[in-house]
Amino acid sequence: MPTVEGLQFGYALHELPPGRLPFRRWRWELWHGATLVAAGWRLARPDAGRALRVHAAEFGHRLFGLPAPERDHQAASGDLRPGTAERLAIGPITCLLVPRALEPPAAAASPA
User: Fold this and answer.
1) Which among 6, 51, 92, 94 is least buried, having the fewest CB atoms inside 10 angstroms?
2) By the 8 A CB rule, do 19 and 1 touch?
3) Is the distance from CB of 68 to CB of 55 less than 8 angstroms?
4) How far is CA 80 from CA 36, 59, 84, 92, in A?
5) CA distances in angstroms from 74 to 12, 29, 39, 71, 90, listed in the order given
6) 76 phi/psi in degrees, rounded to 5
7) Cα–Cα dist 65/68, whole Å
8) How many Å apart are CA 48 and CA 78, to the nearest integer?
9) What is the C-alpha separation between 46 and 78, in angstroms, rounded?
10) d(CA 10, CA 87)
11) What is the strand order of the sheet 4-15 is part of?
């Protein structure tokens, strides 16, 4: 089976400020370019990192018309520290998760 490489996703991962709920929450967002692909919140940072990995793998498979593998939470487990880049390989998809703050800025339109 061929492997697809060169796919990059931006992500945002941060702790939500205390609100009316009495527990900590982590907000995660997955971006493909300027498009928000998935977002949500989890109670623990490792769970938010797992959600980012699972959704990136599923979106990458759909993007190339490949069947998404069954969700393997063990393969997607582990902490994702905010601000770190990570290479993700699940099934035939290999992608890079890059914090949105570290993504290169879009090229400015040159005057005509």
Assistant:
1) 6
2) no
3) no
4) 19, 19, 7, 22
5) 22, 21, 21, 9, 11
6) -95, 5
7) 9
8) 10
9) 6
10) 12
11) 35-42, 26-32, 4-15, 93-99, 86-90
Please give the structure tokens belonging to residue 105: 């800025």
- Dist. CA 86–CA 97, nearest whole Å: 5
Q: Please give the structure tokens belonging to residue 85.
A: 């880049």
* Spatial CB neighbours of 56, under 8 Å, sequence gap ≥ 6: 9, 11, 30, 37, 88, 95, 97
Specify whether the CB–CB gap between 68 and 57 falls below 8 A: yes
Q: Does pTM surpass 0.90?
A: no
3-state secondary structure the chain: CCCEEEEEEEEEEEECCCCCCCCCCEEEEEEECCEEEEEEEECCHHHHHHHHHHHHHHHHHHHCCCCCCCCCCCCCCCCCCCCCCEEEEECCEEEEEEEHHHCCCCCCCCCC
93-to-31, 54, 73, 88 alpha-carbon distances in Å: 17, 12, 16, 8
